[in-house]
Amino acid sequence: MTHEDAGHYASKHPKGIEADPKIVGQIKQKLSNNHISCAAAHLIATDLSVPPSQVGMTIDLLEARIIKCQMGLFGYSPQKNIVKPADSVSSELKNALDAKQNGKRISCEHCWEIALQHELKKLEVASACEALNMKIKPCQLGAF
């Protein structure tokens, strides 16, 4: 959702859906000015053994905003993102990305897997995607 959608994140989800109180409690502990970082959201998912998408949905239901995407794609003020295209992409990384992409799109989750497998920072993988004109979507938290 875009910045203009702020305050309407819950509308992405079916009416009547209820948030898990355990997840709500963890999110509320980590909120600052109604914002929560991507890293904090993923930590909650790990701590509670729930999918990141469930934490993301709960953040939406609370009308909170996710910031500081670990892929560098959004939530960095005053600029929107911090990803810059890589100057070059190794053939090994390009092949790994190509193997997981679908129509010039690759999921955030696949990017994380590739970063781990190739011992790279998530931001390095995002930079390679930018250089290859590959869109990272969908987000594990459902932010994009």
Please report the distance between the alpha carbons of the first and last residues. Answer: 6 Å
Derived structural class: mainly alpha
Compute the number of strand runs: 4
Tell me, briefly, the overall form.
elongated
Task: Characterize the largest beta sheet: strand count, sense, and whether it forms a barrel.
Answer: 2 strands, parallel
Rounded to an integer in angstroms, the radius of gyration calculated over CA atoms is: 16 Å
- Biggest β-sheet: strands ordered side by side in the sheet: 1-2
Q: Helicity level, as a percent range?
A: 40-55%
Total number of helical segments?
6
Order of helices and strands: HEHHEHEHHE
Uncertain runs: none
Number of domains: 2
Strand content: 5-15%
- Overall average pLDDT: 94
Characterize the structure shown:
It is a single chain. The protein is elongated. The chain has 144 residues and is mainly alpha-helical. The chain has helices at 21-30, 38-48, 52-61, 91-100, 108-117, 122-131, and strands at residues 35-37, 65-67, 105-106, 135-136. Strands 1-2 form a two-stranded parallel ribbon. It folds into 2 domains: 3-67, no CATH class; 91-136.
